[in-house]
Task: structure prediction
Amino acid sequence: MGLPALLLALALGLACAPYLQTPPPWFVPPLLALTWYLARRRPLSLLLLSALLWTLGASLYHLHLDPPSGTGHVRAFINPEKLTLQARVLRISQRPGERWSADLEADRVIFDGIAAPVRGRIRLYVDTGPRHASPGDVVRLRTRLRAPRLFGTPGEFDFPRHLARQGIFATAFVPTGEEVVSLGPAPDGGFGLKLERQRSEIGAFIARSVNPGTAPLVKALVLGDKGGISPAQRDLLARAGLSHLFAISGLHLGLIALLLYVTARALYRRSTGLLLRWPPGRVLPALLAPALLAYLLLSGGALATRRAFLMGLAGALLLLWSRRTPPVKMLAATAFGFLLLDPLALFEPAWQLSFAGVLGILSLLPRWRLWTAPLPSPLRPPLLLFMSTAAATVATAPIVLWHFHMAAPAGLLSNLAAVPAVGFAAVPIGLAGALLLPWWPDGAAALFRGCALTIDAVLAAAERIVNLPGLGGWVHYPSPGETAALLLLTGALLMPSPGPRGWPARWMLSLAAAILLWPGGQSDALRVTALGVGQGDAFLLSHGGQTHYLVDGGGLYSDTFDVGQRLVAPALGRSGIHALKAVVLTHDHPDHRKGFIHILEHFPVGEFWSPLPVSDLHPSLQYALADRKIPARCLPPGWTTLERTDLTTNAIFVPEQSGKDLNDRSLVVYCRKGADGVLLTGDLETKGVAQLLGAPPPGPVTLLKLPHHGSRGSSPQLLVKRFSPDLAFVSVGAGNPHGLPHRTVVDYLRQRRVPLHRTDQDGSLRFTTEGKGWKAEHWVRGLFR
Result:
């Protein structure tokens, strides 16, 4: 069995692990290993080895994901109450605006007047204010410890897993940096902390020396800290296909290695003795490895940079020993070793993009470069750069679309100018500034400003390119089937054996992709999906799998997290929904409205329904509706029947709109399928509920959404008593400060024996009926179950 096949078995075990309820028993991998060893010379050994690696991958996933146990770990102090935390600062990262975050190594906590030593890492978020601490300092603060958790929505980024890979299993927050008190440097700071302190000082110097708008981009190129890049800059880089240039990667390491090699070779050739003793191409790569390691450490040690360094180091050693190996085999060996030591890296977009991009270049560029042989020499370098970009783009397209939902055709052109400008100008100038800073700060500042000018020129050129017709890029949220089909087509392109022997396999992969893209059979079911969006509402009504309505879009009161972009849109894409017949706003509160903006901007929407005229809506909604030319429909008070047949009913109830309380003016949606009906009640309070009871829906209510997140003031007991639903559900945020749903409401439902489904406990909820009873499912371990 070849190394790529072994890598595939290990990766599949890791990829399947999130969907398993429990990891394989601890004794299974050793037992499989022993069985394989005893049967290694028999045909069954290949199957046993594959099973061993699959099981090993699944076991490693849970081993690294599960938090440490024991009272000595900081997770034991996760509590709604505040405590005093003393910790050592490991790393500080800037975020857009004045926000910043820090990774802390906990030392002790003081809770209820008792001090206890603890261990474990914490991610601290600071909303605003100055930083009085540096990496290596001991700090003290008052805060609450929280466990990282998911909203429980299809398509959301798994942030707890991202933190677990860094050994972080608890988070904390303080509103201002003034609350983080520095007690001075830790007495036992090692090399890592000293390096982080140096990186922090370089970052602070860049912030003082460079235009505030460009400083985060300079820090991204020099230090690998891209946290301060603004959303507008990220959007431009994504549409221009240049995001990879401002995330330290193998490209940067390769360009630095090329510059160092050219310079070192010129000096090496001055010595006849060295040339006669050792060829420069054999010994220089190994001699340059320490310099590249220093760059790796200075730039933050990103996954892609580590991949490039390990492959470069392996290549240098092979050259030194006069050995040769296929590059694809070296790539597979690097990936295999990576996953054994850092299994959760498989799920990081940077890891996937790095290996896929190199695989695309290694697979496609040797074939394509044959076409450049007849061309004049001056045309070959830019054409090879274009081909390299195209090869990497082809290989990474499914991954980019899956994680970032962006197609950027402008990247094929913008990289022609941006790669040389960034790789041979901005990065070397910025690194020179970092090296010069301890001895000549004024000279370093001038170099950092030169780096910033280069970046400004690159961004200006990128903006002109994306404004060209057809190159602006587009947003698409793919379904799993679409992504799988795209992966199969990409695999067909990357397959070796370009001759006739490879065509049957290519046709098989293409046929499988076509089957995945073939429209599925239609269903007559009514489906209600309550998306887990925290303390807000976002519901998806689907009729027959073809017609979809989005009722409210969720939204947080904070402006730093776009619920529409981060939760609702990915959930629609994962559900295979790319167009909405209508979006329905029950009332204009932020936790129902804010998520709509991204949906209106990036999804085809037939109509917008609301109890309010457009002129009374929030300006952001008015702008989005006008910009996309979406028809808006203001529904009158009372019931409006949208569709009615013997089997189905779709209707909307609008209370009187003369009151001051927007909650009591919430629009109500009713849908019926056969003997089952669902009632979505918005945020109605007592007066609104009374109006609804005075004009009940035109059919049975067997599924009830509790009004106003299950608050006591919304009188949900009256609705339950009147309609006697089979099921009830509520959309609430985990640990919300309002204590919703209220205990009296939960107790009443329990007394009435009405099952209550909650997004804070169960994640996204899905209810399906064909008119003969509801089937309830929760989003658990990556699937509705």
In short: Residues 578 and 715 are 37 Å apart (CA to CA). The two ends are 36 Å apart (CA to CA).
